[in-house]
């Protein structure tokens, strides 16, 4: 009878982080249910939700405002996980000495970051499925016209935004510091992602800045996929660059104490 092969360390670490994630009610609510709840409230309460997204563009005239706002809400869901729950939890481990004890083991820092990213990405995917499912069934939101481009844009938006969150998680000495850095990045992302001011009506200078940020580029790319606009090559390149810079930078700057 052959012996059972031991589970790889990264898998064990990811499963442990997943169990801990589900035990925090506040984190679980904002990561999984907040985007769907906010989208439903806007769609059911706001009077503009059923109005045409554009009165000048014939291709968008049949799309409601709540449908036009959905790509922005997905970027908000990505930012919520990337800038709030993810960095704060890693910094809490650092503050409580958990990371210091882990530093005496063979576990390299990238495995902890990967485990955290995997757990948060799973939570994000569940949140998106829940939000889109309810939006389609309850609000009549139209799904993206170019699904393949949508998937590519969503993956890059998540990776690029998580790379910024990973840098915060790597250097924040305490949970309060991570919360401060993360919430600052979060509220900036609300502006650059078009939550407060739609990208279409932003001043030109601010819009150019937004397009160079991971959340702004993500919103642009998701909108292009949603409304069958030209392929968003520039936005995809911007998000790729953020990912390629942020991930190794986070690993290099990661501190155990």
Write up what this structure looks like.
It is built from ten helices and no strands. The model has no long low-confidence stretch (mean pLDDT 84). The protein starts with 8 loop residues before the first helix and ends with a helix. It has one domain. It is globular. It is mostly helical and 257 residues long. Helices cover 73% and strands 0% of the residues.
State the end-to-end CA separation: 45 Å
- Specify the structural class: mainly alpha
Instruction: Classify the helix fraction into a percent range.
Output: over 70%
* Average predicted confidence as pLDDT: 84
* Number of discrete domains: 1
Rg, rounded, reads: 19 Å
Please describe the biggest sheet, giving its number of strands, its sense, and whether it closes into a barrel.
none
Number of strands: 0
Low-confidence stretches: none
User: What's the shape?
Assistant: globular
Give the topology string: H per helix, E per strand. Answer: HHHHHHHHHH
| Number of alpha- plus pi-helical segments | 10
Counting copies of identical and different chains, the oligomeric state is single chain
Query: How much strand?
Result: under 5%
Secondary structure layout plus pairing:
Elements: H1 9-23, H2 25-45, H3 65-95, H4 98-102, H5 109-139, H6 147-171, H7 175-192, H8 204-211, H9 214-226, H10 233-253
Helix pairs in contact: 1-5, 2-3, 2-5, 3-5, 3-6, 3-7, 3-9, 6-9, 6-10, 8-9, 9-10
At a glance:
The chain is mainly alpha-helical and 257 residues long.
Question: What brief labels describe this structure?
Answer:
0% strand, single chain, 257 residues, globular, 73% helix, mainly alpha
């Amino acid at each position: 009878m052959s012996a059972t092969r031991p589970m790889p360390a990264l898998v064990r670490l990811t499963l442990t982080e997943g169990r801990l994630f589900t035990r925090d009610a506040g984190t679980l609510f904002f990561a999984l249910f907040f985007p769907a709840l906010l989208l439903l409230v806007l769609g059911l309460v706001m009077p503009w939700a059923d109005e045409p997204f554009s009165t000048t563009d014939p291709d968008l005239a049949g799309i409601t405002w709540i449908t036009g706002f959905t790509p922005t809400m997905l970027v908000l869901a990505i930012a919520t996980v990337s800038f709030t729950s993810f960095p704060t939890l890693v910094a809490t481990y650092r503050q409580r000495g958990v990371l210091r004890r882990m530093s005496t083991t063979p576990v390299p820092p990238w495995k902890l970051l990967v485990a955290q990213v995997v757990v948060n990405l799973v939570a994000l995917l569940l949140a998106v499925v829940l939000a889109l499912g309810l939006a389609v069934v309850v609000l009549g939101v139209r799904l993206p016209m170019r699904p393949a481009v949508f998937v590519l844009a969503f993956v890059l938006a998540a990776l690029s935004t998580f790379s910024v969150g990973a840098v915060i998680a790597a250097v924040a000495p305490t949970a309060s510091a991570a919360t401060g850095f993360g919430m600052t990045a979060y509220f900036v992302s609300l502006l650059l992602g078009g939550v407060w001011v739609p990208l279409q009506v932003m001043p030109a200078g601010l819009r150019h800045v937004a397009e160079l940020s991971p959340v702004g580029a993500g919103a642009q790319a998701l909108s292009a996929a949603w409304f069958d606009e030209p392929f968003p090559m520039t936005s995809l390149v911007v998000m790729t660059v953020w990912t390629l810079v942020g991930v190794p930078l986070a690993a290099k700057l990661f501190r155990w104490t």
